[in-house]
Every structure is written in structure tokens, then in C-alpha cells.
Amino acid sequence: MTATILDDGRRRLVADRVLLTLWVAGAAAVLLLPFASMAPNRLVSGQPVMLWAALLPWQAWTAAGLAALLLLSALATPLPRALAHGLTLAAAWGLALLVLYGIGTYAGRAVTPDMPAARVSLGSAFWVVLFCAALAMLDAFQRLKAGMLPQVLYAVATVGAVAGLFALDLFDDLSILREYANREDAFAGEFLTHLALVGAALGPALLLGLPLGLLARRRAKLRGGLFGLLNFFQTIPSIALFALLVAPLSALGDAVPVLKAVGIKGIGAAPAVIALVMYSLLPIVRNTYAGFAGVPAAAVEAARGMGMTTRQVLWRVEVPLALPVILSGLRIVTVQAIGLTVVAALIGAGGLGTFIFQGLGQYAIDLVLLGAIPTIFLAVTADFFLQILVALSKPEGAR
Amino acid sequence: MTQAAAFAPLRRGGGRGVLLVVLTAVLVGLVLFMEELEPLFRAWFPDLDNPLYRRETFLRLTLDHIVLVLVSSAISVSVGVAAGLFVTRRAGREFEPMVSAISAIGQTFPPAAVLAIVVPLAGFGFVPTIVALTLYGLLPVVQNTIAGLGTVPPATLEAARGTGMSPRQILLRVELPLAMRVIIAGVRVSVIINIGTATIGSTVGAQSLGTPIIAGLVGDNIAYVIQGAAVVGLLAIVTDMAFERLERRFTFG
């Protein structure tokens, strides 16, 4: 490995050092870290299981073969670069699915009729290999300078294949899915609560933030104070703001019983939504302001020259031109609100954070993951779709 | 630039400077003399038997909180700036798209979820909190180091090379000073997020200013909640304002 990286100018042995680095990291994880952990029941802590012990022989050999192909595509010879990147995309895809399939079948073999309570959890090598495979895919796409369409198709193929493995009940014996099966109804409820809290916060935040952003653009004097105040909110740690709202709202609920009847009380959704709105305002106002500030003066001038009214200029010229920046603000706050809602579980607002904090309280790691993994998935998915929306909102020439 | 224009930013910052001093004084006062406020909390919450958090002093909690943030931020900043420098040099340029992509995607992960995911790998307590804070804090630093170094105009670099500066001199005397404001902005984001996440760290067993908040939420004691939240909120705001001043010092032109 030492002699592989030569100076530029001389013939290089390694063409893709990023891929090589990922390969080395993945290989080191497989050799040093447990791939899964296996416990006879929930009370005993798990024993580490290495990859070669967990996989069936044909799976282990296929994994080794795919790893060899990935190493080959990192080398400068013999493959031409485009072919090598294609090979990376194929081999990394195969490896990721094989690892998923392997851990599912291992769990199926470990949970036998005489050991029905056996628990198989995902080990750190499992995560590292998946992570490195995903980054290898990303690296190949970056180097191919691939457009949006092939990447979306590839992503769809990957998600479809993983969904197929789920549909085959392959993962049902993994402990995280056992946790899920135990609280299937609660999970659906908390997932919807999570989405509802995010939605309930984004609505008012947009209704308040968009006019405020426009106002900041039109009235320069207001700008400093407004941004200062909103930054003030943004800076306060989430749990502190959530918690600080508990006191006044419980006092308000006690003082005005009608409010309490409609859900305005100290603990619950009301303080969570108010805090989420406060956090969401800064990015929305700032991006709305920046979007309008970025509209070329010449475009506004030309529109006025054509005889458009102020209202027409706003809706037909300024808003369309400012839209991509405003939508990037929406992207920031959506991702942020999905994350902050986790913390809202601590003040009894519900959402996926409920599982995380329950799990932390009971030292039930799988329960923690049952809350954490869907939250991350939700944030990344929202980010992905809003990114597409931002790209689509850009005027034809600027895409 | 005329004399008056040169001083304009200072004057504009003057009012905020006073605010910073006042808020810092309030913060220090709360941390040191929270006990003196017991009569106030007793009058405010007459139903509570114990309206003052006493399991630890607020000085201890604040110091623990600051240690969590300082240790993780020190690692994040040194590793993050080094990584940003590496991928903007010739030897590491190949890694730049990958590192940028990781720091952009990583920041969409909710900090609380990252903290929770580190627990199975590192156990409960101080260590997972430090690991989570460090990992999460890295991302804005890396991103802003790359962005900051990218703002240095090629003509400036050309001129520096033309005067016979070595790559090392160019880095230390031209690139880093010009990129410093953006890098500090990244450190600011990183530290503020870490102050917030360290608060949640109390749910995985790391003692911090979140400890009285969680104790208050669990035990239905709003006074504890207010005490913890007020101190940690002020700590975050004072830190943010201090960074704002530091950033302004590195604004050129």
C-alpha cells in the first residue's frame, strides 16, 4: 500500500485516491470491528460477531469479490476511467445490498425455535461498510460528472431494492425491527405527530417570515433590529427555549381555562410549536430578504418601464426571481425543524424523539435507533426533495 | 477610506458592546449567586418544596458544560481547519468534492439523533457527548474553511507568488488572514450548536446545564427548568455576541 501513491507527473498506480481511502477504511472496519452483535435475550449484553462469522460462505466470497472489483477500479490500469466509475457504481451497489441481505439472513439463522428471544443488533462494521459504499457511489457520480437523471434513477433502484428486501420480511429477526413490531401502532402515531409538529410550525413561520423578509428589504432601518432579535432566538439552545416556554404557557393555561381546553398548557405541543416557529423565522426572513435584495435593479426598472403596477412588479418579476433563494430558506428550516422536533419529545410533545429518550432511559439501544434512524431518514429525504424544488424554481437559463 | 468611515463599524458596534458586557455580568451573577435568588423563586412558585436546584452548584454545571464544548470544539476546529487546508492544497484537491459533500449532507442530520446514535458505539456519559459534539462541530468548520479559502482572489495569490513568497508564506500571510472571517463564522456556528447539543447531553449521562432542565421536566419542577434554561440561554447568547465581535475584527476593506 505504501508505494502506491506517486507524485503527479510520474505514472500513477492509483487513479482514485478517494475510492482507495474508502476501501481501506471499509476493510479496516471489517477486520477490526464487529459486524453484528448477538445476545441470547434482551437482558444479556450482546457478543460481537465478525463479518466472516456472520455471513454464509457464498456471501463472504461474493463480498470479497466485489471488494476486489472496487480496488481494481481505484487503480489507474487496466480500466479506462469511465468504465472504472461504472464498475464502482455496480460493485458498491452489490456490496451494500449483499451486506443488508447478509445481516438479515444471519439474524434469521440466529433466531431459532430453541432461542426465540435471541437478539441480533447491527454492529459498527455494518454501518462503516454501508457508509463507505454510499460514499464510493457519490465519488463515482462526482467523477463521472453525471447529471440529475442518472443519479435519481440509481437512487430509485437502490431504494427499490432495499424496499424489496423489507417486503421479503428479510429483516424481521433483527432486534430493531422486533422493537418496531412491538410498537407498530405507536410508531405510526409518533411518526405522524412528528410530521404534524413540523407542519404546524412551518405554516405560521412562512406566514410571518415572508412578509417580514419583504419588510426588511423595503425598510432598511428595521433590518438590524429584526435580524438581531431573530438571531437571538436562533442562538438559544433548543431544549432551553422549549423549556422556557413551558412556564408562561402553563401559567396562561391556569389563568384562562378556555385556553387549557384547546391545548394551550405548559407541557405538550403548544410550547413545541411556538419554539419551532421562533427557530424557523431567522432562515426564512433572511432568505426572503436576500432573495428580494438579489433581484437585479434593471429587471425591476424594465418592468416599471413596461407600465407594470407595483403589485404586478412584485408578483410577476420580484417573487419569481427571488423564489430559489426563498425556497433554500424553506429547505434549511424544514431540515432544522425535523431535527428540533426530536427535542420536543422532552416536553411531552411526542414525535420520534419519544423513542429516542425512552430508549436512552431504559438503555434500550434498538429503541433509540428506532427513533434516530427514521428522523435522519426524514431529514435527508426532505433535504433531497427541497433541493430538487430549489433547482426547478431557478429560471431556465440559470439551472 | 476616510477617518470617519473607518470608525463607523466601531461606533455601530458600540451599543452591542455595552449589551455584551451587561449580559456577561448577568450570566456571571446567575452562575455565582443563584442561591441568593431562592426567595424570589419561592415567591414565584409557592407550591414547590424545593424551588432551587441544589444537587450541584451552577458554577460546577456551567464549568462542566464549558468543558464539554471547549474540548469538542478544540478538536473540531483543529481537525476541521486541517481538513479544509488539506483539500484545498494540491496534494488533497482530489478529496475536496467528497469532503464538501460529507459536510453538507452531515449537517442535515439532526444533532440530537447523532448524539443518540453515538451512545451504542461509545456508551453513556462524557465520551459519547464529546464524540457527537466533535463530529457534528467538524462540519461547519470544514465547510467554512473551504469556502473561506475559496474567496481569496486568484489575482491576489498570483501577486503573492510574484513577490517571491513561498507556499507556506502565502498560506500564513495571505490566504489564512483573508479567509479568517469566514472560518470564524464556521467556528461560531459550530460552537453555538455544540452549546445546544451539550445541553441535550444530560440525557445520555453527561453532566451539563441541561441536567437541571431535565430534572425539572422529569420532576415537574418548573423552577429548575427556568434556572438551567436561563443560564444556558445566556451562555449561548454571550458566546454568539463575542464571536460576532471577533468576526468583525477580521473584516477587511
From TrEMBL, chain A:
It holds the Pfam family BPD_transp_1. GO terms for biological process: glycine betaine transport; transmembrane transport. Residues 191-386 form the ABC transmembrane type-1 domain. The chain crosses the membrane at residues 18-37, 49-75, 87-108, 120-140, 152-171, 191-214, 226-250, 262-282, 313-332, 338-360, 367-392. Keywords: Membrane, Transmembrane, Transmembrane helix, Transport. It is found in: Cell membrane. PROSITE patterns: ABC_TM1. One of its GO terms (cellular component) is plasma membrane. The keyword Transport applies. The keyword Chloroplast does not apply. Gene3D superfamilies: MetI-like. It is a multi-pass membrane protein. Belongs to the binding-protein-dependent transport system permease family. This is Osmoprotectant transport system permease protein. It comes from Caenispirillum bisanense. The lineage of its organism: Bacteria, Pseudomonadati, Pseudomonadota, Alphaproteobacteria, Rhodospirillales.
From TrEMBL, chain B:
One of its GO terms (biological process) is transmembrane transport. It holds the Pfam family BPD_transp_1. One of its GO terms (cellular component) is plasma membrane. It is a multi-pass membrane protein. The chain crosses the membrane at residues 17-34, 66-87, 108-127, 133-157, 178-202, 222-243. Keywords: Membrane, Transmembrane, Transmembrane helix, Transport. Its main location: membrane. Residues 62-243 form the ABC transmembrane type-1 domain. SUPFAM superfamilies: MetI-like. PROSITE patterns: ABC_TM1. InterPro entries: ABC_transp_perm/SBD, MetI-like, MetI-like_sf. It is found in: Cell membrane. PANTHER family: GLYCINE BETAINE UPTAKE SYSTEM PERMEASE PROTEIN YEHW (PTHR30177:SF32), GLYCINE BETAINE/L-PROLINE TRANSPORT SYSTEM PERMEASE PROTEIN PROW (PTHR30177). Belongs to the binding-protein-dependent transport system permease family. This is Osmoprotectant transport system permease protein. The lineage of its organism: Bacteria, Pseudomonadati, Pseudomonadota, Alphaproteobacteria, Rhodospirillales.
